[in-house]
Structures are given as C-alpha cells and as structure tokens.
C-alpha cells in the first residue's frame, strides 16, 4: 500500500531514468518505469514545467488530478536545456543514468547537443528512449504529431464509433499511451541486450506505428481480399454473439462467440436446439446471422435485471460483465481484493485514489512509493547535490543564471 515506509521498490529499483519531454507520450512511459521501481528524475524547464501539472478535470483553482497519476514515483528537477550550462548539467546526470526518455520533435535533442551520438560517448551503456509522432526518420519525422494524429494515421480512429457517425475518439489518450507502452517494452528489451553486450542503443517509438501494431489483421485483410474495415459500433462483424445487451434496468456485455461457450449460453437461456440450428451451428453461421442472434439474446436479457443476468452467466460459465464507470470500479470486491485501486497520500488532497501499478510481480512488487512532486524543482538540491556532488556555491550559480 502506498505511503508505507517499509515499501520496497520493484524489479527496476537499481535503474535510473532521466525523463525529458512533456504531456503524455513520454511521461507515461516514465510512469510505467517508475511504477516498476526505477528512479525517475523528471526534468522540466525552470518557471514553466510540464503542462500536465495543470491538465485534467479538477475544481477551479485546485491542482491537476491527472498530474498525481502520471508524475507519481518521480523526482522533479528544473533545468534549462537551451542553455549550454544546462546541457552540461544534463550530461553530468547522463554519466550515471540508465535511460534518457524524451518525446520532443526529432532533432530537438541534437539541437541541444544531446543527441544519442553525443550522449553515448559520455555513457556507452545509455539507452535512449525516443517517443515521437512519426519516428526519428522518414519524410514526416519533422512534423508535429500528437496522439490524436497517430490514432488517425494508424487506423484506429476510422474504425471507432457507430457507422452512422464520423470517427470517434476512444475517450482516453490511447495513441500516446500505446506509444509509451511500446517504448517501455522496447526499453526493457534494450536493457536485456545491454546485459549481453554492455552497449546501449536507441529505442524509437512512433505514435502512428504503436497504433498500427494494434490493428490486428486490418492490413492483411485488405492486402488479400480488398476488404476495408468500417465502424461497427459495439460489435465485431461476424463475431457473434459478442455485444452489449439491454437488461430490465441497464446493460450487460456478453461474449459467447466460441462454440462451446455458445453452447453454455444456449443452456442458460433454455434454448437446447440452437447449437445445432443451421443458423447458429458454428462461428461462420452465427456471424452471418449476427443481427438475428443478437436480437434473440436481447429479448431474453430484457426480462432480467443486470445483476440476475450476470449471476446466470457466471453459473453457466459464460463470459459477461457490467460496463463499469469509476463508481463501480471503486466499489467492486474483486478490485478491492487485488488492490487494483489504491489510496495514496497527497500533500494537497490528502487521501487520493488512483489505479495501482500493472503488472503484479510475486517477488519484486512495484507500487506507488512517492507522490507526484507538487513544486517545480522540488528535488533540485537532492539530485544535484546528492547525485552530482554540487555544493551550495555551484547551486547558487545555477540559480542565478536561471539554469535551474
């Protein structure tokens, strides 16, 4: 549980990350690494900071409620990377870092004399994690690329939503978060390579490619059949039954598209002839008759409450679930048993609920071991004095020059 002074950090507790960049694609990767125990030093411009400090839905005049999640387990250091002196301080930090994480437009780090070629000369073991809209090379690499653009170019936006409406967004910043997740996976793979060779490398995670990687057989379907996936709302075409069905007091999601599971659904619905009915006898037949089958199932679920429908599905071993919002998540006994949501201590909000770390480790559990830094440069002295040995005179000089 967060806030416990006996908490032991997770499997990456011997690693150090220098996190540059702002908003979400880079910082979410830093969150993942920090959740697994890495020491994450978040570097922000003096007097400015990451816009995530004020983003999100919060009461007027109060701090961001998104920042405590994405900046948890991080130390805040201010550093003006546009100044040569700031670049020099950064390079001092690089000497004892395992990862540099950035999500600027390609070429920015090189403009600051801190590209991988320069940094790897200082620390050959350094792994540089680079997250961008279009990747570090190619004709679009210079373009600005937010997550929404990556979602559109990667194919996700076109297939999201109801066919009667324009493409929808997912409700979360999924493009940024996918690019960050793949960046984290790549960083850990690069760490394994470093263990074998002693050398670091660049991990290049592009937003549009991270989205594209999740698009299943979309490309191959078009390549071989000319089929273009369209928006289909709550269903996947030809995968049935798998849909959201009305109950007498709400909605229930039932996924019984596999043959044996469909048989159990039929037993639960007291429809013993359906598994051998030519319209429903196999996956292809059910896909062809998807609309008819969904209508028959919904006619049954509408006679039940959501609670009763879920009880019956559980009894017969049919995957089903309620469509949760935050209130249902917080109250759910399974979430509580697995500590999927934890209560952390925050200097402004006091007790603050948020999602726990993922995945779980049996021997080296990760967790939220420190709250997000509330002040810009909150850990300047701790990091620059404790890690680099800078004395009071040197720190005063850097402050006077507005480097930190």
The unreliable regions are 1-7
Major β-sheet strand ordering: 3-2-1-4-5-6
Largest sheet: 6 strands, parallel
What is the string of helix and strand elements? EHEHEHEHHEHHHEHHEEHHHHEHHEEHH
> What is the strand content?
5-15%
Helix content: 25-40%
| CATH fold-level assignment of the largest domain | Rossmann fold
Count of extended strands: 11
Computed Rg: 25 Å
User: Mean pLDDT, as a whole number?
Assistant: 94
Name given to the CATH architecture of the largest domain: 3-Layer(aba) Sandwich
Shape: elongated
Helix/strand/pairing category: alpha/beta
End-to-end C-alpha gap: 34 Å
- Tally of alpha and pi helices: 18
CATH class of the largest domain: Alpha Beta
Task: Spell out the CATH superfamily of the largest domain.
Answer: Crotonobetainyl-coa:carnitine coa-transferase, domain 1
Structurally, the number of domains stands at 2
Structure description:
- With 404 residues, the chain is of the alpha/beta class.
- It contains 18 helices and 11 strands.
- It has a 6-stranded parallel β-sheet. It has a 3-stranded antiparallel β-sheet with strand order 7-8-9, covered by helices on one side. Strands 10-11 form a two-stranded antiparallel ribbon.
- The model is unreliable at 1-7 (pLDDT under 50).
Summarize the structure.
With 404 residues, the protein is α/β, with parallel strands linked by helices. The protein is 38% helix and 13% strand. It is elongated.
């Amino acid at each position: 549980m967060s806030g416990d002074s006996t908490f032991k950090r997770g499997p990456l507790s011997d690693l150090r990350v220098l996190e540059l960049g702002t908003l979400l694609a880079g910082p979410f990767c830093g969150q993942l690494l920090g959740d697994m125990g890495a020491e994450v030093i978040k570097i922000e411009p003096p007097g400015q900071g990451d816009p995530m400090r004020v983003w999100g839905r919060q009461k007027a005049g109060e701090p961001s409620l998104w920042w405590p999640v994405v900046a948890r387990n991080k130390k805040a250091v201010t550093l003006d990377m546009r100044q040569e002196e700031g670049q020099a301080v950064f390079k001092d930090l690089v000497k004892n870092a395992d990862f540099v994480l950035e999500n600027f437009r390609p070429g920015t780090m090189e403009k600051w004399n801190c590209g991988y070629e320069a940094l790897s000369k200082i620390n050959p073991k350094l792994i540089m994690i680079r997250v961008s809209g279009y990747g570090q090379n190619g004709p679009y690499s210079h373009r600005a690329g937010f997550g929404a653009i990556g979602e559109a170019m990667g194919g996700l936006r076109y297939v999201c939503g109801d066919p009667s409406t324009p493409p929808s967004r997912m409700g979360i910043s999924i493009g940024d978060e996918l690019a960050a997740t793949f960046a984290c996976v790549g960083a850990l793979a690069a760490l394994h390579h470093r263990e074998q060779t002693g050398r670091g490398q660049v991990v290049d995670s592009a937003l549009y490619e991270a989205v594209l990687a999740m698009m299943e057989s979309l490309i191959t379907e078009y390549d071989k059949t000319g089929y273009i996936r369209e928006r289909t709302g709550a269903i996947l075409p030809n995968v049935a039954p798998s849909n959201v069905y009305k109950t007498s007091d709400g909605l229930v999601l039932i996924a019984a598209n596999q043959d044996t599971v469909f048989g159990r659904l039929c037993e639960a619905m007291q429809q013993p002839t359906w598994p051998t009915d030519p319209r429903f006898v196999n996956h292809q037949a059910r896909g062809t008759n998807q609309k008819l089958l969904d209508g028959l199932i919904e006619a049954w679920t509408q006679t039940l409450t959501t609670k009763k429908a879920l009880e019956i599905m559980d009894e017969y071993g049919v995957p089903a679930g309620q469509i949760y919002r935050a209130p249902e998540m917080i109250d759910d006994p399974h979430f509580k048993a697995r500590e999927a949501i934890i209560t952390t201590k925050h200097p402004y909000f006091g007790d603050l609920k948020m999602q726990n770390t993922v995945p779980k480790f049996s021997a080296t559990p990760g967790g939220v071991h420190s709250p997000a830094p509330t002040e810009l440069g909150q850990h300047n002295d701790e990091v620059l004095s404790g890690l680099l040995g800078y004395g009071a005179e040197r720190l005063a000089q850097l402050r006077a020059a507005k480097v930190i």
